[in-house]
Amino acid sequence: MTTTASAVLKDPLGLHARPSVKLVKLAKTFDATVEIAADPEGPWTAAKSLIKVMKVKARHGTALHVRATGADEAAAVAALVELVEADFPEDGSDG
């Protein structure tokens, strides 16, 4: 089974370096295979690879689609969507 959801990017610069690092760091905390896409039809990109995430080039206002497959897929998708919806906050935690 695969869990999918999306959230709109609020950052004026879209998915740039800082949010990409946060997204990858969070994705790596899950066992599930996690992927993102700027379009629901893809192409889908491995969310645990910073280089690949940076290549997504999702702009401000784009719905970032997240999907995951594996043991903790629902938690992974929920956490990444929450991160995007919160606009990648600077909370001081290292995850």
User: Structurally, how many domains make up the residues?
Assistant: 1
Output mean pLDDT.
94
Count of DSSP-assigned helices? 3
The shape is: globular
Which fold name fills CATH's third level, the topology?
A: Histidine-containing Protein, Chain: A
Q: State the secondary-structure class.
A: alpha+beta
Rounded Rg: 12 Å
Strand order of the largest sheet: 1-4-2-3
From the 3D coordinates, which CATH architecture would you assign?
Answer: 2-Layer Sandwich
DSSP strand tally = 4
Give the helices and strands as they follow along the chain: EHEEHEH
Pfam family, one: PTS-HPr
InterPro entries: HPr, HPr-like, HPr-like_sf, PTS_HPr_His_P_site
Protein name: Phosphocarrier protein HPr
Domain HPr: 2-91
Summary, kept brief:
This protein has 95 residues and is of the alpha+beta class. The chain has 3 helices and 4 strands. The chain has a single domain (3-85), classed as HPr-like (Histidine-containing Protein, Chain: A), CATH 3.30.1340.
Q: Can you walk me through this structure?
A:
The protein is an alpha+beta fold and 95 residues long. The chain has one domain: HPr-like (Histidine-containing Protein, Chain: A). Helices cover 31% and strands 21% of the residues. Strands 1-4-2-3 form a 4-stranded antiparallel beta sheet, with helices on one face. A hairpin with a 7-residue loop joins strand 2 and strand 3. Helix 1 runs antiparallel to helix 3. The longest helix has 13 residues. The protein is globular. The N and C termini lie far apart (26 Å). The model has no long low-confidence stretch (mean pLDDT 94). This is Phosphocarrier protein HPr. InterPro entries: HPr, HPr-like, HPr-like_sf, PTS_HPr_His_P_site. Keywords: Sugar transport, Transport.
